[in-house]
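ESCALATION

Customer reports they have been waiting on this structure for their group meeting. Please prioritize. Original submission:
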Amino acid sequence: MPQLLYFGKGGLVLDYLVRAGCTSVSRMEEANIVVVENYDNNSANPFERLTGTIGLMREALDVIQETSIERMVVITDQSSTKGAMRKGTTSGVALDDVHGLGSLTVEVLSRMAANMGVKTRVYRIQSGQVQDALAHIHSFLDSDEDSPVYEVVSQ
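Update from on-call: job pushed to the front of the queue and completed.
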């Protein structure tokens, strides 16, 4: 049974995972999974705005470095790819604002967990589609199947 340590704003994602059979724990020693749910706090101050992205991810990585975690899920939006593309390009990074920068940085930082041996999946979810992605997220957390050490899934 997944014992998860959650970093985020709470609400829909955490509630769903607990109802689906995951146990939310408050201490890293009790956890075998980390869930980081990024969010945009819409602060006017750019540094404060990054607390819901880079700040959460750094907290999670600091804890992961001290323990042995099996899996990590990072949930973010698509703000790192939904901005204006450079002229002549059709794919890649396209930040929509400072939140997009934070989301992209979280994706990069999540590789640190993979480098520590933690199976890490980043879910880049379209705004308003979180509910539809929850079953996939839970399936990854609850699975014993062999999966890539690092994967980004856009939904």
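Sent to customer with the following note: The chain has a mean pLDDT of 91.
Escalation resolved.
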